[in-house]
Request: fold
Amino acid sequence: MTAVIMLGPPGVGKGTQAAKLAKRLGVPAISTGQIFRANIAEQTELGQLADGYISRGEFVPDSVTIPMVAARLQEEDVREHGFVLDGFPRNLEQALALDELLTELGMPVDVALEFSASRERLLERLANRAQHESRADDTPEVFLRRLKVYYELTEPLSKYYEDHGVLGVVDASGSAEEVGDNMYEALRKRNIYI
Ligand code: AMP
Reply:
Protein backbone atom coordinates (compact mmCIF):
# COMPACT_ATOMS: atom_id res chain seq x y z
CA MET A 1 0.00 0.00 0.00
CA THR A 2 1.53 3.29 -1.06
CA ALA A 3 0.03 6.77 -0.79
CA VAL A 4 1.76 9.49 -2.81
CA ILE A 5 0.83 13.14 -3.34
CA MET A 6 2.22 15.14 -6.25
CA LEU A 7 2.67 18.88 -5.76
CA GLY A 8 3.97 21.37 -8.29
CA PRO A 9 3.07 24.26 -10.59
CA PRO A 10 1.08 23.88 -13.80
CA GLY A 11 3.28 22.72 -16.65
CA VAL A 12 5.89 21.10 -14.41
CA GLY A 13 5.14 17.64 -15.80
CA LYS A 14 3.51 16.07 -12.73
CA GLY A 15 0.78 14.41 -14.80
CA THR A 16 3.32 12.48 -16.89
CA GLN A 17 5.29 11.45 -13.82
CA ALA A 18 2.14 10.57 -11.86
CA ALA A 19 1.01 8.15 -14.57
CA LYS A 20 4.48 6.57 -14.77
CA LEU A 21 4.79 6.23 -11.01
CA ALA A 22 1.28 4.84 -10.52
CA LYS A 23 2.01 2.15 -13.09
CA ARG A 24 5.24 1.15 -11.37
CA LEU A 25 3.59 1.07 -7.96
CA GLY A 26 0.48 -0.72 -9.23
CA VAL A 27 -1.82 1.93 -7.76
CA PRO A 28 -4.43 4.17 -9.41
CA ALA A 29 -3.32 7.63 -10.59
CA ILE A 30 -6.00 10.08 -9.57
CA SER A 31 -5.89 13.47 -11.30
CA THR A 32 -8.52 15.98 -10.23
CA GLY A 33 -7.90 18.04 -13.39
CA GLN A 34 -8.53 14.95 -15.52
CA ILE A 35 -11.71 14.07 -13.63
CA PHE A 36 -12.99 17.60 -14.23
CA ARG A 37 -12.03 17.55 -17.93
CA ALA A 38 -13.76 14.18 -18.44
CA ASN A 39 -16.90 15.58 -16.79
CA ILE A 40 -16.77 18.69 -18.97
CA ALA A 41 -16.45 16.54 -22.10
CA GLU A 42 -19.43 14.44 -21.01
CA GLN A 43 -21.37 17.56 -20.04
CA THR A 44 -22.29 16.20 -16.63
CA GLU A 45 -23.61 18.47 -13.90
CA LEU A 46 -20.18 18.44 -12.25
CA GLY A 47 -18.57 19.33 -15.58
CA GLN A 48 -20.92 22.25 -16.16
CA LEU A 49 -20.19 23.54 -12.69
CA ALA A 50 -16.41 23.18 -13.01
CA ASP A 51 -16.07 24.52 -16.56
CA GLY A 52 -16.23 28.25 -15.81
CA TYR A 53 -13.71 28.09 -12.99
CA ILE A 54 -11.26 26.00 -14.99
CA SER A 55 -11.43 28.15 -18.10
CA ARG A 56 -10.69 31.22 -15.95
CA GLY A 57 -7.74 29.48 -14.27
CA GLU A 58 -9.44 29.53 -10.86
CA PHE A 59 -9.95 26.71 -8.40
CA VAL A 60 -13.16 24.76 -8.49
CA PRO A 61 -14.71 25.40 -5.03
CA ASP A 62 -13.65 23.12 -2.19
CA SER A 63 -17.32 22.28 -1.57
CA VAL A 64 -17.26 20.46 -4.93
CA THR A 65 -13.67 19.25 -5.12
CA ILE A 66 -13.26 17.77 -1.64
CA PRO A 67 -16.34 15.48 -1.76
CA MET A 68 -15.35 14.40 -5.28
CA VAL A 69 -11.91 13.30 -4.09
CA ALA A 70 -13.37 11.76 -0.92
CA ALA A 71 -15.67 9.58 -3.02
CA ARG A 72 -12.83 8.47 -5.29
CA LEU A 73 -10.55 7.59 -2.37
CA GLN A 74 -13.18 5.33 -0.90
CA GLU A 75 -13.24 3.08 -3.95
CA GLU A 76 -11.87 -0.41 -3.67
CA ASP A 77 -8.74 -0.03 -5.83
CA VAL A 78 -7.53 2.75 -3.55
CA ARG A 79 -8.38 0.89 -0.35
CA GLU A 80 -6.46 -2.13 -1.62
CA HIS A 81 -3.42 -0.54 -3.20
CA GLY A 82 -3.15 3.15 -2.32
CA PHE A 83 -2.89 6.01 -4.84
CA VAL A 84 -0.88 8.64 -6.61
CA LEU A 85 -2.80 11.87 -6.22
CA ASP A 86 -2.08 14.51 -8.88
CA GLY A 87 -3.60 17.97 -8.45
CA PHE A 88 -4.97 17.57 -4.93
CA PRO A 89 -4.54 19.07 -2.39
CA ARG A 90 -4.13 22.57 -3.79
CA ASN A 91 -4.77 24.63 -0.65
CA LEU A 92 -4.58 24.20 3.10
CA GLU A 93 -8.29 23.37 3.51
CA GLN A 94 -7.90 20.52 1.03
CA ALA A 95 -4.75 19.27 2.77
CA LEU A 96 -6.55 19.20 6.13
CA ALA A 97 -9.57 17.45 4.60
CA LEU A 98 -7.28 14.91 2.96
CA ASP A 99 -5.53 14.16 6.25
CA GLU A 100 -8.87 13.58 7.90
CA LEU A 101 -10.01 11.27 5.13
CA LEU A 102 -6.79 9.29 5.13
CA THR A 103 -6.92 8.92 8.88
CA GLU A 104 -10.40 7.44 8.50
CA LEU A 105 -9.08 5.08 5.83
CA GLY A 106 -6.05 4.19 7.95
CA MET A 107 -3.78 5.21 5.08
CA PRO A 108 -1.21 7.88 5.98
CA VAL A 109 0.62 9.80 3.24
CA ASP A 110 3.95 8.10 2.56
CA VAL A 111 5.41 10.97 0.59
CA ALA A 112 4.42 14.33 -0.87
CA LEU A 113 6.63 14.97 -3.89
CA GLU A 114 7.16 18.59 -4.80
CA PHE A 115 8.18 19.10 -8.43
CA SER A 116 9.90 22.38 -9.18
CA ALA A 117 11.15 24.22 -12.24
CA SER A 118 11.85 27.85 -13.09
CA ARG A 119 9.07 30.08 -14.37
CA GLU A 120 10.84 30.28 -17.77
CA ARG A 121 10.91 26.49 -18.03
CA LEU A 122 7.20 26.28 -17.16
CA LEU A 123 6.29 28.82 -19.83
CA GLU A 124 8.37 26.89 -22.35
CA ARG A 125 6.57 23.64 -21.48
CA LEU A 126 3.22 25.38 -21.73
CA ALA A 127 3.98 26.57 -25.27
CA ASN A 128 4.90 23.01 -26.16
CA ARG A 129 1.81 21.48 -24.52
CA ALA A 130 -0.52 24.05 -26.06
CA GLN A 131 0.66 22.84 -29.48
CA HIS A 132 -0.01 19.17 -28.73
CA GLU A 133 -3.09 19.20 -26.50
CA SER A 134 -5.77 21.79 -26.85
CA ARG A 135 -6.62 22.57 -23.26
CA ALA A 136 -8.84 25.61 -22.89
CA ASP A 137 -6.84 26.68 -19.83
CA ASP A 138 -3.44 26.57 -21.53
CA THR A 139 -3.67 30.02 -23.14
CA PRO A 140 -0.86 32.32 -21.91
CA GLU A 141 -3.30 34.54 -20.01
CA VAL A 142 -5.06 31.73 -18.12
CA PHE A 143 -1.79 29.92 -17.53
CA LEU A 144 -0.31 32.98 -15.80
CA ARG A 145 -3.40 33.17 -13.61
CA ARG A 146 -3.01 29.47 -12.69
CA LEU A 147 0.64 30.05 -11.89
CA LYS A 148 -0.22 32.99 -9.63
CA VAL A 149 -2.86 30.97 -7.79
CA TYR A 150 -0.34 28.14 -7.43
CA TYR A 151 2.30 30.36 -5.80
CA GLU A 152 -0.27 31.93 -3.50
CA LEU A 153 -2.24 28.90 -2.35
CA THR A 154 -0.51 25.63 -3.25
CA GLU A 155 3.19 26.29 -2.80
CA PRO A 156 2.78 26.91 0.96
CA LEU A 157 1.70 23.27 1.26
CA SER A 158 5.29 22.11 0.85
CA LYS A 159 5.95 23.55 4.32
CA TYR A 160 2.89 21.71 5.64
CA TYR A 161 4.22 18.37 4.36
CA GLU A 162 7.76 19.19 5.42
CA ASP A 163 6.47 19.76 8.96
CA HIS A 164 4.79 16.36 8.75
CA GLY A 165 8.11 14.81 7.73
CA VAL A 166 6.94 13.47 4.38
CA LEU A 167 8.16 16.02 1.82
CA GLY A 168 10.35 14.89 -1.08
CA VAL A 169 11.77 17.49 -3.46
CA VAL A 170 12.12 16.73 -7.18
CA ASP A 171 14.07 18.89 -9.62
CA ALA A 172 11.79 18.96 -12.66
CA SER A 173 13.79 21.20 -14.96
CA GLY A 174 15.22 18.43 -17.16
CA SER A 175 13.77 15.92 -19.62
CA ALA A 176 10.90 13.62 -18.62
CA GLU A 177 13.43 10.84 -18.14
CA GLU A 178 15.69 12.94 -15.91
CA VAL A 179 12.70 14.11 -13.88
CA GLY A 180 11.65 10.47 -13.49
CA ASP A 181 15.12 9.58 -12.18
CA ASN A 182 14.99 12.47 -9.72
CA MET A 183 11.55 11.31 -8.61
CA TYR A 184 12.75 7.74 -7.94
CA GLU A 185 15.72 9.15 -6.01
CA ALA A 186 13.37 11.25 -3.84
CA LEU A 187 11.24 8.14 -3.23
CA ARG A 188 14.28 6.11 -2.16
CA LYS A 189 15.06 8.79 0.39
CA ARG A 190 11.61 8.09 1.82
CA ASN A 191 12.30 4.31 1.75
CA ILE A 192 10.12 3.62 -1.27
CA TYR A 193 12.09 1.38 -3.61
CA ILE A 194 10.73 0.68 -7.06
P1 AMP B 1 -4.71 20.35 -13.63
O1 AMP B 1 -5.02 19.39 -14.72
O2 AMP B 1 -4.24 19.67 -12.37
O3 AMP B 1 -3.77 21.45 -14.06
O4 AMP B 1 -6.08 21.07 -13.23
C1 AMP B 1 -6.78 21.86 -14.17
C2 AMP B 1 -7.75 22.78 -13.46
O5 AMP B 1 -8.73 22.00 -12.73
C3 AMP B 1 -7.15 23.69 -12.41
O6 AMP B 1 -6.57 24.87 -12.97
C4 AMP B 1 -8.37 24.01 -11.54
O7 AMP B 1 -9.22 24.94 -12.19
C5 AMP B 1 -9.09 22.67 -11.52
N1 AMP B 1 -8.61 21.85 -10.39
C6 AMP B 1 -7.86 20.72 -10.45
N2 AMP B 1 -7.60 20.26 -9.22
C7 AMP B 1 -8.19 21.11 -8.35
C8 AMP B 1 -8.26 21.20 -6.94
N3 AMP B 1 -7.64 20.30 -6.16
N4 AMP B 1 -8.96 22.22 -6.40
C9 AMP B 1 -9.59 23.13 -7.16
N5 AMP B 1 -9.55 23.13 -8.50
C10 AMP B 1 -8.85 22.14 -9.10
Observations:
- Residues 10, 32-33, 36, 53-54, 57-60, 65, 87-88, 90, 94, 137, 146 surround adenosine monophosphate (CB under 6 Å).
- The radius of gyration is 16 Å.
